[in-house]
Specification:
The chain is mainly α. The chain has four helices and no strands.
Length: 79
């Protein structure tokens, strides 16, 4: 999520929620972050990196790729 979107969301929440709701939301987000922190920070092993690179190179070789325009079109359709 872009910094602009996050700033807009923050501003909206500050204007829409009461202070007690903001505190509750902050506690929930902190708890969620603490529970999922280990998963989010786990680095890839070299074997995983090599496997992903080999898969990517094979996809490129087989022509199983998207152009920039196709990627942006899919992104815009999701939004």
């Amino acid at each position: 999520m872009s910094i602009t979107a996050l700033t807009s969301l923050r501003d909206y929440l500050f204007s829409a929620l009461t202070p007690s709701n903001l505190i509750w939301l902050g506690e929930q987000l902190t708890d969620y972050g603490n529970k999922h922190q280990e998963e989010a920070l786990k680095p890839y092993s070299m074997e995983e990196i090599y496997r992903m690179l080999n898969e990517s190179e094979l996809q490129i070789k087989n022509g199983d790729t998207l152009t920039d325009d196709e990627v942006w079109k899919k992104y815009e359709n999701k939004m």
